[in-house]
Amino acid sequence: xKTYSIKYTRRFLAMEYPNLPVFSVKxxxxxxxxxxAFFTNxxxxxxxxxxxxxxxxxxxxxxxxxxxxxxxxxxEDLVIFFVDEAQRFGIVExxxxxxxxxxxxxxGIRMMTFLVGQYELLNQKHALxxxxxxQIVMRFMVNELQFRGIMSQEELATCLxxxxxxxxxxxxxxxxxxxxxxxxxxxxxRMLQQTQNLWGQFEKVYDKACFGRKxxxxxxxxxxxxxxxxxxxxxxxxxxxxxxxxxxxxxxxxSNYIDAQEELRLIFEKIDLE
Length: 274
Description:
Structural class: mainly alpha
Helix content: 55-70%
Number of strands: 3
Distance between the termini: 25 Å
Number of helices: 13
Radius of gyration: 23 Å
Strand order of the largest sheet: 1-2-3
């Protein structure tokens, strides 16, 4: 899901740009926005030693100084923030975040912010635009990128091939497919070969749910289905083991994908009505 995509992106950035300060902050559900709690949350996210002490002004200055110091150690003069569950931000919190953005800009440091959230985030953007909150939209909401699931057999094949090629420990000869099915793997079994069976079962479930939209399988349920398939069938590993439609159907059912599709259908119906 979204949170794991943030973790993956941060890890990738750390590999490519080891000195680049990249942080992730999660917006929490609350009844009343608190400026003190907001800056405590940001200080905690950047792993500051003293996130809770001091006045609001002291916390704000401590955060700005900390970020300036981190940025000065990199070659980019850049700070990156991922905001998870960003749809929980209110206007006042965007204003506080804008203050951080502007303060860093005064020191020649760019602040790049990625807002990651539910569909409500788009509604929030439209509401901010309608209320002439251009300064917020221009700083944090210019571009929109949809984090979507698997939408074709070819995309599923790419994912399944990863189980055949990704190894643990890294740089070893033990892929995930080989670990769970060593005998079958030695005899040519690969997860990539299971693409048609798995995609066919997902399509049947999708059509049965009468979702009414182009098929899209969230990565969470692709991963859970594959994990269940591997865990439950590793004991059946033989040189002749091959995945069947029945085994994949069972794994999909146990992943709760069907129930999730029903919930999504209700959500989309509500969005269409609005």
